[in-house]
Each structure stands twice: as C-alpha cells, then as structure tokens.
Amino acid sequence: MPRLQFKTFAEPDEDRPFPLGNGRIVSLGETTVGLARWEPGWRWTTHLAPIAGTTSCQVHHLGYAISGRLRVEMDDGQTIEIPPDSAYEIPAGHDASVVGDEPFVTLEWTSARVVGIGPEGPSERVLATVLFTDIVDSTAALERMGDEAWRMLLNDHNRRMRDLLNGFRGREIDTTGDGFLAVFDSASRAVRCGLAMVQAARDMGISIRVGVHTGEVELIGGDARGVAVHAAARVLSSAGADEVFVSSTTRDLLDGSGLAVEEAGSYQLKGLTGERRLYRAVAPSA
Known about the structure:
Elements: E1 14-18, E2 21-28, E3 31-38, H1 44-47, H2 49-52, E4 61-67, E5 69-74, E6 79-82, E7 86-90, E8 94-99, E9 104-108, E10 124-135, H3 138-145, H4 147-167, E11 171-175, E12 180-184, H5 187-203, E13 208-220, E14 223-225, H6 227-238, E15 244-247, H7 248-253, E16 260-268, E17 275-282
Parallel strand pairs: 13-15
Antiparallel strand pairs: 1-2, 2-3, 3-9, 4-7, 4-9, 5-6, 5-8, 10-12, 10-13, 11-12, 13-14, 15-17, 16-17
Helix pairs in contact: 3-4, 4-5
C-alpha cells in the first residue's frame, strides 16, 4: 500500500559504483529510483557492455536529465542527443555516451533497479519465481511470413517483452530464440507480467504461452540453475496458446494478491517425480 515517505540520496539504500560513473539507489515501496552520474568519456559499449554481457543495452530507460549531455544510438541507427533539463525515454537496444567535458547526471525510474547489475559474481541460492515464455507455432509462422517479416516481428516481440519485464521488476536471464527466461522476487508480479505478456503478444497477432514456478534458484554469473528452473520449463511445456500456467507452489503464494487461478489438471512433468497439479492464471476483466 502506498504511504507517505521520503528517502534522501545522501543516504541511499545502495551506492552502486560503475566504471566512470556511479548510481545512488533508493526504493519507495515497489518503486526504485536512481540518481546516476556518468563522467566525460563514458560509453556504454566500452564500460558497461562487459558487465551486462550484451552487445547493446537491453534496458528500457525513463528519466530526467539534470545536467550534461548524452548521445544515444539505437541498434537500428536512430540517434538523439539528450540535453540538460529534459525528460527522456530510451527503448531497449542502444548504445550511449557522454558528450563534452561535463558529467551527465540523471534521475531514472524504470531502469534504476537493474543498471550496472551484471552476470559476474559469486554463486548464490535464492528463493525466486521463474518465468518461461515462448511463441506458439513459431516455425509455422516463420514459414508463412518469410525470414525478413519474421525477424522484424521477433524484434518487436522482444522489445515489448523486455519492456514488461522491466515494468514488473523481472530479471532477464536468457532468451530462447522465440522466448524468455526471467526470475522475479515476487510470485504475483511474475504472474501479472505473464498475463501482460500474453496480451501484448495478442496485440501483435501472435500467441505465446507462459510457465511459472517458484523455488530455490542458484544464480551463477548471469545464469540461473536448479530444479526450480527445470520445473518452470516443464510447466511451460504443459501450457497452451495464450495461457499462463503456474505450479501449485506459486499458486499458494498468490493468496491475497487478487489474482485468480483455475485448475488445469494433473500432469507428469518430464524429469520430475510424481504428478503435479497445475493451474491456469485468469486475466482480470477489463
């Protein structure tokens, strides 16, 4: 529930150093805000790509430029230069660099939680909700549409799915060609994200399916491992077009969330012992 509160960047929840920059992070309920400073000479592909492990930044940014200037180049060649005292939006799939001799200082919302969090680091086991997605009948769609049209649709699909992952605070672990693997620290946010992904895909004229399971996950570098990941993949394989299937473990964690589920039956999940009851998440009415 929202409450009256404030936090100061002088005493942030997290002080996150970057190569040629730093971020001060505060969280207000489920909202994370970051005050970042990027020094002259900073460039994403030089200083953050080795941390992120991708060829371009895959984070959607929404923020306010306080001072300095930032040049942004999208993967498709579009470019802009963001001046001081301006609000901005930067879609996923871009490079960025500080222009001139003044640091670029910015306040950001949608990306503050994930910027500078990379794949390197020690192994840790955490309780997480794992989400898998894939496009239904993607091979048939590719044959029907042709390579170029399919590539454009897949790029649009990936952008929309990443925007939703950012919005629901999911951490993208991997892409599976035509789907995603992500982890969440909240079962309800994972299911809400899955339902939103299904609707976004429908709006594009395609169908996806989603599988969600909660359990202990071992995070090693940028990878997620463990039985919970395997189980989530098997839950996905049981779902049909436009369906979000959840395990009984995740279902139990949805109590009080306002999300509705319905029984989908008992399934023998490959590689797991015994039958497992699965549930279908019900999209809220308009």
